[in-house]
Design goal:
With 395 residues, this protein is an all-alpha fold. Helices cover 69% and strands 0% of the residues.
């Protein structure tokens, strides 16, 4: 629960009227709590970036009720919420495909679930954010529990805007009903965001400058979130999967690899947006649009393997292709399996165990996940563009 520890104690600092964006305060509260001293992370505390939080005030605002509870109770609730939310998301994706290819869909979802241990074990907010995003999509497309869907998507955006953001953008560019849901979500996120910022600013008036400085420090060369070869945090089962990890091998400079990735992914997203704008939001078109944007979401900004659980949104589209049969069905199966495998826990845990975490294993580990995600995104975008424009829209 190392990630939840940051949310929990960051919220605790705000409750105690201390600034969580100052590294000294975070380290002090870790050291104050004997159970959470430096022993659980031996060898990790020599880096200058440890104790720097890159999270927006909204995560501390949302976790604050749990920060009032003892650590064992808070972690049990957080882990339970994450597990239930993610399992419900998987179940709803199966329900969306049960009339198309139920056994095939169940097999894909099973692979997602068994590859998602770190999603729960680390305590990161991505489990809730991805789960709530998928649940909200189901609510909107089925026109059921739409208010709950809007609140859930707003919470997901507050926690992980880089995960849920393009899904929200799809709703805005679709038909009138889905645009209405996007605006409802925007109203909720405005209330959450303003409340969180007001609370944080009352305690830490310079929080924005400190947040930007923290983010700059951890993403700079050698930082824990640096996508380049000098990164101290891009090695192991939960590696960074955005496309900068590949491009940076040609030139380890953000002035090179960021523009290259932005141009490539921007071109793909423009095609996706243009097709969304001209197409009626039929149920089939919605699923193919989401199947395309889920892997593309992972590529242009910072993401780790656990963020790729958003690919669950592609299960209904993959099931439809599988039922149609032919060459596209086998391409869909191969590319989805590759993305699940290379962005999942099991493969990399086994791989690094066999390779004994040697330097040679690190040299090749950065490559498969981003390239698999890129291939899957391009494939689903190709299928999405080939969809018929007309048809009954989502009610």
């Amino acid at each position: 629960m190392v990630d939840f520890k940051e949310f929990y104690f960051g919220s605790r600092l705000l409750i105690e009227h201390r600034d969580p964006y100052q590294r000294s305060n975070m380290i002090a509260i870790y050291d104050r709590e004997a159970t959470f001293s430096r022993e659980p992370c031996p060898g990790c505390w020599h880096r200058d970036t440890d104790g720097l939080t890159p999270n927006f005030p909204t995560i501390f605002f949302l976790v604050a009720p749990l920060a009032l509870l003892p650590w064992p109770v808070a972690t049990a609730i957080w882990m339970g919420l994450t597990s239930v939310c993610f399992l419900l998301a998987g179940f709803l994706m199966w329900k969306s495909a049960e009339d198309i290819a139920p056994q095939f869909s169940a097999g894909l979802i099973f692979l997602f679930l068994v590859n998602s241990e770190l999603l729960v074990a680390l305590g990161n907010s991505v489990g809730l954010a991805v789960g709530l995003t998928i649940i909200a999509v189901w609510c909107f497309l089925r026109n059921r529990f739409v208010l709950a869907g809007a609140i859930g998507l707003a919470i997901a955006l507050a926690m992980k805007p880089h995960d849920a953001g393009l899904v929200w953008l799809y709703l805005m560019f679709s038909g009138r009903e889905l645009r209405k849901r996007a605006l409802q979500t925007l109203a909720v996120i405005a209330v959450l965001g303003l409340s969180a910022v007001a609370w944080t600013a009352s305690v830490a008036p310079h929080w924005l400058d400190e947040l930007l400085a923290n983010q700059s420090a951890i993403t700079s060369r050698g930082g824990i979130d640096d996508p380049g070869p000098a990164s101290t945090g891009n090695f192991g089962p939960n590696m960074i999967v955005n496309l900068q990890t590949v491009v940076s091998r040609y030139a380890d400079h953000s002035g090179f690899y960021n523009p290259v990735v932005y141009l490539l992914c921007g071109a793909l997203l423009l095609v996706w947006l243009g097709n969304t704008w001209r197409m009626r939001p039929t149920p089939e078109a919605c699923w193919f649009a989401l199947a395309a944007v889920a892997p593309l979401s992972m590529l242009f900004v910072y993401h780790r393997c656990y963020d790729a659980r958003l690919l669950l949104l592609g299960v209904p589209a993959c099931a439809m292709l599988w039922k149609q049969g032919g060459r596209l069905a086998w391409w869909a199966l191969a590319l989805n399996l590759s993305a699940i495998l290379f962005s999942g826990d099991v493969f990399w845990i086994v791989f690094f165990h066999l390779a004994h975490y040697a330097g040679s294993s690190a040299a090749i580990s950065y490559l498969p996940a981003p390239l698999a995600l890129l291939a899957l995104g391009v494939f689903h975008l190709y299928v999405y563009v080939r969809q018929p424009v007309s048809g009954p829209s989502v009610t």
